[in-house]
């Protein structure tokens, strides 16, 4: 029984490079981002990982990362389910803005609160708690049953949707998860017990 869950944040996007708030906007990967995604697949292949099913968001940077990984592990045609529940946190009115410009408009302290508080959303957007409110039920109903059946499951998604999921998986508080960084293109491998608790965790650093 494998009961393995692999989480990977998409590779660097064009807007990551430009220091823009991205959210539900849909820029593609940079050259580095493509390389990060392919490297993630190579590390997973070297670790002997084969997947039974993959999940990703509706955003192209996550979908492209997912496909690069599947290509590298030799499973290019694996069943892949795309769902908005795994989308990045919606940054509302901040989306598309340079982070420095946002600080000039709203003030450094206010922007920091929006970025780093657990439950304060930016104007027209989502807090991390709001993001979790869609990620957690989707994971419980659509993803976790595959894992608990003994399958090996890939989720290629985003920094905040994955942080929301990691918070639930590891039983972290809102404050604790805010300190957790999820690096681009770095696979996190969880082995779960039959009761869905974590048996082991491994981070495949480059």
Automatic annotation (TrEMBL):
The record marks 158 as: Transition state stabilizer. It catalyses: (2R)-2-phosphoglycerate = (2R)-3-phosphoglycerate. Its EC number is 5.4.2.11. Keywords: Gluconeogenesis, Glycolysis, Isomerase. Pathway: Carbohydrate degradation; glycolysis; pyruvate from D-glyceraldehyde 3-phosphate: step 3/5. It holds the Pfam family His_Phos_1. Gene3D superfamilies: Phosphoglycerate mutase-like. Substrate binds at residues 9-16, 22-23, 61, 88-91, 99, 115-116, 159-160. The active site is at residues 10, 88. SUPFAM superfamilies: Phosphoglycerate mutase-like (SSF53254). It is an enzyme of class 5 (isomerase). Catalyzes the interconversion of 2-phosphoglycerate and 3-phosphoglycerate. PANTHER family: PHOSPHOGLYCERATE MUTASE. Homodimer. HAMAP family: PGAM_GpmA. Belongs to the phosphoglycerate mutase family. BPG-dependent PGAM subfamily. This is 2,3-bisphosphoglycerate-dependent phosphoglycerate mutase. It comes from Paramesorhizobium deserti. The lineage of its organism: Bacteria, Pseudomonadati, Pseudomonadota, Alphaproteobacteria, Hyphomicrobiales.
């Amino acid at each position: 029984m494998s009961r393995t869950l692999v989480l990977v944040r998409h590779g660097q996007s064009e807007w990551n490079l430009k220091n823009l708030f991205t959210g539900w906007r849909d820029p593609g990967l940079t050259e580095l981002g493509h390389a990060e995604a392919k490297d993630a697949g190579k590390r997973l292949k070297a670790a002997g990982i084969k997947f039974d099913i993959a999940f990703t968001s509706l955003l192209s940077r996550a979908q492209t990362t997912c496909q690069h990984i599947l290509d590298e592990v030799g499973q290019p045609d694996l069943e892949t389910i795309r769902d908005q529940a795994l989308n990045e946190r919606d940054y509302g009115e901040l989306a598309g803005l340079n982070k420095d410009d946002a600080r000039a408009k709203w003030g450094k302290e206010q922007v920091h609160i929006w970025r780093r508080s657990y439950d304060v959303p930016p104007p027209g957007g989502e807090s991390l708690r709001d993001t979790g409110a869609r990620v957690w039920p989707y994971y419980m109903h659509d993803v976790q049953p595959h894992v608990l059946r003994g399958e090996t499951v890939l989720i290629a998604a985003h920094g905040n949707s994955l942080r929301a999921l990691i918070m639930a998986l590891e039983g972290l508080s809102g404050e604790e998860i805010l300190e957790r960084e999820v690096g681009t293109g770095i696979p996190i491998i969880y082995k779960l017990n039959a009761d869905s608790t974590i048996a082991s965790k491994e981070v495949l650093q480059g």
